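INTERNAL AUDIT FORM
Audit reference: QA-55
Scope: verify that the stored structure record matches its stored sequence.
Auditor: D.O.
Record contents follow.
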Amino acid sequence: MTTYKGIKGFTVQSLATDPLASGVAGATWSSGGSLNTARYRGGSSGTQTAGLVFTGRTPSYVTISEQYNGSAWTEVGDVNTAAYFNGGSPAGTTSAALKSTGKNSGSTFQTNVESYNGSSWTEVADVNTARDSVYGAGTSTSNIIAGGQNPPNVALTESWNGSAWTEVGDLNTAKGASSSWGSSNTNALIVGGEDRIGLDRNRRCKYS
């Protein structure tokens, strides 16, 4: 009789339990060290074991930055201008990050941009259009921000080359509060968000 091993050259692996249920092949979430200052809608940069969070609301607008070493958070140099709902540099590091735009009162939208070198924040060239609810991708020297709210929502996209911001191709749909990924100002993905009309959270735009 023909066998599977005879056809494919190996046998089918037999497992006593479901690997997804036991966590063998499926990833799971676990608790890590808590931030020193609870907040929401801040910016972020870095990796799972070397992360940086900055600004946000407590509900007060804060300038606080904290760095993660894989187990605990330590307060580091504050940003110069308090903000929340600002863009960041998700592909940046704990020693090279970018904070862009945001809001620091009920109606004050920022053009402010600051760069982090691992110990302190320095104000650099402002973006062209003030807004909040913008999300960025890339690093501290090659960054892109797209969309946001002024209000109303905008489709504007701006690219950062390490010294200046330049307006580039707009999003297909004006929206804010999206999610974003990307390694540079030429490789980014903006997903979901609010259009403030139908609250469409499903649209996706790719920048390349």
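Auditor finding: record pair retrieved intact. The helical segments are 4-8, 19-22.
Action required: none
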